[in-house]
Amino acid sequence: MNRRPVVTIDGPAGAGKSTISRLLASRLSFFYLDTGAIYRAYAYRLKNRGWNGTEQEIAEICESTKVSLQNDAGRFRILVDGEDVSEKIRTEEIGLLASKISAIPLLRKHLLPLQREMAEVGGVVAEGRDMGSVVFPQAEIKFFLDASVGERAKRRYLEMAEKGGTVALKDIENDLICRDRQDRERSVAPLAVPADSVVIDSSDKSLAQVVEAMIAVIEKRCPLVKLFSD
Asked: Residue 217, SS3?
């Protein structure tokens, strides 16, 4: 292999994709591409504008909004027109809206070249809903990270509680069920397990165990990756 591989991590909301992807990218010294955050950034802008549901406004947002990703000393940050929205986009409301707009062909068409451009030279861990199936179908390594809805809800609840949130656990679980249905049933790029991916259920695994399982797969398929992770 002449370049470092592209690693994709797909899976449902709350499965731990973001955390695992950051840890894996750090371990390999790869760039972490959080495509879900890109859609959340556009959802954030639309929400602030009071989006009326029309694709015309989506087109206007695509033309007028600048979204950029930054790796700030290992901390992933996303900026919308210069505003750091890294924390503001992590609400359930924004997540649901992001899931909805990610099925709009106009927005997907606008963002697809940007995502692929970021991975042209390899050395990328890309996470989202359709990384291995649609965005990077030729990726060298593909994972599908899953977990039970109860476990995903508990993790999200604890994460929000740490930040001072007061959302009820049952409400979070209901939102995740809604997100799952929305992601799997949408007509454009629905959430699916890529045929050539390695499925990992993280329900009863620690973060470290999941990362180690992924490292083992990567080093088996692409031994030269070890040269880039020291």
From this structure: helix
